[in-house]
Design a protein that fits this description.
Strand order of the largest sheet of chain A: 8-10-7-11-9-12-13
CATH topology of the largest domain in chain A: Phosphoribosyl-aminoimidazole Synthetase, Chain A, domain 2
Strand content of chain A: 15-25%
CATH superfamily of the largest domain in chain A: PurM-like C-terminal domain
Number of domains of chain A: 2
Helix content of chain A: 25-40%
Number of strands of chain A: 13
Oligomer: homodimer
């Protein structure tokens, strides 16, 4: 697997050997100089940041837990660091917010190799740099169990540009960015492969899916542009899958939805993988999680709203997959008839 | 022990039984209505908060990991919730910041009883209410290992009122709030007691120490008042103990310190406990952690600064324990001569 961890010599220094203060110094030395609007950065009791004048603060936190969200056999520590920030960037993107500063909190098994922490940091800092996010603090502690990686992200948004999960109205079109199902197919392939103990290379169409799972691309540009143009009634990111997104954007507001099965943009590799597994590709994509695309509820009138949506998101594609309904049921529509929408994905159970 | 967990019936519902969505609903129902400056509170992809006009944002995150920071045999889940917020309040207090909103991220073992989550939330929400902090979001996930409680706290501070760890100057007095050593003595008693398997009530003088360990009182009022009055050159909270605080406030700036052993305000219960354990009470208090007092470096001239410090902190006491030196050594001074300052406390190794 191109993404696998290079072999670690048995003598590799562990975080226990290094100790907290030296590990902290090592991390601090890797963090690039903070931008001028960071008054106090990494290394104090808290970080101090100048807010964007006239804007609102947006804050979110999300964790990656070893054995729940990642498996060190499946991907590199670089990918873990990337994804820990990416899932938070996706949350801010769903609000339309521009990310600014991150905190990284690690609970580390004592025998974890120091260079695994370095790799995790590589992944996180590379993605942070590409989104101009400054790492300004966090926390280091020991874990007597799995590796915990928590990232907190603080961003800003103009007062009238906030998108929320509420606000969808009957008749709104449901639009999803990019393609779905890739992460679920990638996970399926990795689990099958790990269980078989095989070291096979990832087949061509599935490499994209595995990459989608391990290194998701949060839709920051799409989210901020859609928010700025005030095009949509509601937005959510698809961390827990498309079916869950449709549910969250409608049910709490007493609404329902019809999703057109034929319209769901399942990516090619996933479609082939699920078909080979004798699973319905659309149902698998709906109930699979971790695609980190965005779902919007968009008014049909004026029709210019939908055109504008396509324009501000391009070259990323956006697909109408269904309609918000006043009736609270959640349905999956096929030429052969309606069925209940599958349930979303959960890391929890 | 007054603080112990009430017996849980074997049939208690677990978080696994309840599931993520219903647990989230249960938490949401417990959170009081958000203040008007919270534009989007708990339940969306991120929280949206109006910053204080003209002020800076201050943000920190800190974790409590089962088996590292707490032991469910020693204290109630209410205390865990209290402390998870308290340690973050203490970080903001050390900067002089006023806390405003919190995020709570939980990684829960599947067999954890739902009412244990309720208790954790009780402790956190009670302390939040007393500091007018709004819980506006967070994250829920499963843990395949220990219970993991991460709190992120966002506050605000006036532009010229920020206190940092840097800024101490040779000749500055080192002042500590309240008393130290209590948490370390409390931990010592609990460990001794748990190991003996005994259910003895906490002896009189030690009850205060145990309470200090399990339910620390962050010095929010002291920190914000000292920051507002711009009295000190540097400040830090004593999460990792007084010796570590003295080190952090001097060494990175190329400075040292002399700590007067006789001046260290070790609390009575701790003094008796350490003496009975045949440990030097001052050394034990210096190297013990988790007192969550504040340490300040205060200019001696004008002398009014020190008087003002005492006045704004009252009725909490503040004690001069030593002096910042240009020479980088860290010394503990006794009538019998100088020794090296003991090392601080660390959760990490």
């Amino acid at each position: 697997m191109p993404d696998a961890n290079p072999a670690v010599p048995a003598t590799a220094e562990s975080v226990h050997d290094l100790g907290e203060h030296r590990l902290l110094d090592r991390i601090r030395a890797r963090v690039p100089p903070a931008p001028p609007w960071v008054a106090v950065g990494i290394g104090d009791d808290a970080a101090v940041v100048e807010p964007v004048r006239g804007a609102l603060d947006v804050v979110t936190t999300d964790a990656m837990v070893e054995g729940v969200h990642f498996d060190r056999r499946f991907g590199s520590m670089t990918a873990v660091g990337h994804k820990a920030l990416a899932i938070n960037l996706s949350d801010l993107a769903a609000m339309g917010a521009i990310p600014r500063v991150a905190l990284l909190s690690l609970a580390l098994p004592g025998d974890l190799a120091v260079h695994d922490v370095d790799r995790l940091l590589n992944g996180l800092l590379d993605l942070a740099a590409s989104h101009r996010v400054a790492l300004v603090g966090g926390n280091l502690t020991r874990s007597p169990g799995p590796l915990f990686v928590e990232v907190t992200l603080l961003g800003s948004i103009g007062r009238r540009k906030v998108m929320t999960r509420q606000g969808a109205r009957p008749g709104d079109g449901l639009y999803v960015t990019g393609e779905v199902g890739g992460a679920a197919a990638g996970l399926g392939w990795l689990q099958r492969n790990a269980n078989a103990g095989s070291g096979d290379a990832v087949p061509d169409g599935l490499a994209v899916c595995v990459d989608r799972l391990l290194r998701p691309s949060p839709r920051v540009r799409a989210g901020t542009r859609v928010g700025r143009n005030r095009i949509v009634h509601a937005a959510i990111d698809l961390s827990d899958g498309l079916a869950d997104g449709v549910t969250q954007i409608t049910q709490p507001s007493g609404l329902g939805a019809i999703v057109e099965a034929d319209a769901v943009p399942v990516c090619d590799g996933a479609r082939r993988w699920f078909a080979a597994e004798q699973r319905d590709p659309v149902e698998a994509a709906l109930s699979g999680g971790e695609d980190y695309e965005l779902l919007f509820a968009v008014p049909d009138r004026p029709p210019s709203a939908v055109r504008l949506l396509g324009r501000v998101i391009a070259p990323l594609r956006v697909t109408r997959i269904g309609t918000v309904t006043a009736e609270p049921a959640l349905r999956l529509r096929r030429p052969s008839g309606d069925a209940t929408l599958p349930r979303g994905f959960t890391h929890f159970l």
